[in-house]
Design a protein that fits this description.
5 strands; 6 helices; alpha+beta; globular; single chain; five-stranded mixed β-sheet
Length: 164
Amino acid sequence: MTKSGADLLAVLRQLDDPQWLEWPAAYDRIAVAARFGELVARLESDFGAPCVAEQDTQDSSEYGRATVPAEVTACGTRIVVCVSRFGSLALVCAENPGAFLGSQDAQDEGELDAADLATVERALVGLGFTVVPEELVESDYSGPSQAHLYGQRPTWWDRFFGTF
């Protein structure tokens, strides 16, 4: 579902439990795999092309990624959808996570079409995912799991999509 920045930050804080870093306490691998499969099928249908899917990432709080190929996007840049193991969190990136400062930056540089982004976000919301902007997950992390995260300046990305 689509939420405001403050509401999304509240969701991230609510999901953050230092006892469960890689996946939440009630993690259902089979259900997550099924929903991810539905997402890939929906993206393939919406864009009319096969999408590369990487799933069940080991030692990571990210479940997987689905990639819409560049040749079927309006700007000729691939779209990567990252899915977390937590709370059905998902984010949409042009080219790769971190390649741009976020979706607005990618649009401003002519690398992400607003209609393509809307198509991906509709698919995510329709399947019950919570879309988190890349700009938010790249902000400084300030939750209770900080001691378990690597790096000098951990981000919400590290917490919900990073490796352990």
